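Subject: for your reference before the review

Hello V.,

The reviewers asked for a structural picture of the protein, and I figured it would be easier to keep everything in one thread rather than splitting it across files. Below is the amino acid sequence we used in the manuscript, unchanged from the supplementary table.
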Amino acid sequence: MTRARGHILGLLVLLFALFGNGPARAQVLVADLSNHLVQVTTGFSGTELLLFGAAQDEGDVVIVIRGPDGPATLRRKARSGFGIWINSDEFTFNGVPSFYKVASSRPLGELKADNALATHQIGLANLQVEGAGARTADTVEDFREALLRNKVRQELFAPEAGEVTFLGDSLFRTRVSFPSNVPTGRFTVTVFLLRAGQVVNAQTIPLIVSKTGIGAEIYEFAHRRSALYGIGAILIALFAGWLASAIFRKA
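And here is what came back from the structure prediction:
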């Protein structure tokens, strides 16, 4: 009930921002998230956020949720003469979003906005990633398709756009699901308002995904004190082995 009231209050705030400040200060597009922080704890199994907003003008609403960019390396395996699968080739892409999902009030193919979608990298077909290294165009495309398949299989990319639902003429909403393996960092949630194939307004909403609790402390210690973490892991493993051996001897 508390969460529902929070969503209703948020919608009222959006309506006031959209219509309550007079014609001189009226905003064409306003949107917000039900929560700006996703806390990844030890037992985190995924979560879902509500994005809601209002558009003063007519048009289509498209939402892009994008995680921090970084490199991604793919390896191609081949069977050797001894029947063993080994890495035969690898390729690295730069600027790959760690998370990428799109939602739209209409299917992207019906928007008739190919130039706008390409410019703003809306949809997997328009996602731009830069290859590091010289390869033929066909080879790069093969690796790119493999990259997208892997991300979709990990539920970090969505193969199709989600649905943005309008409530009346102005209010809209959609739900965004984050899997248990969602990467941490600063996300960007960009809301576009398109009309006649052009972006007429846009708003970016920040979103933080962060590890919390004992898991976060261990993760931070492992990265900042990697040598000590490694030594500690070895000592714990040795102690566990000694303890198991002692128990079996007594048994």
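For the response letter, the relevant points are probably these. The domain at 2-212 is CATH 2.60.40.2550 (Immunoglobulin-like). The helical segments are 2-19, 114-119, 137-153, 214-224, 226-250.

Happy to draft the paragraph if you're swamped.

O.
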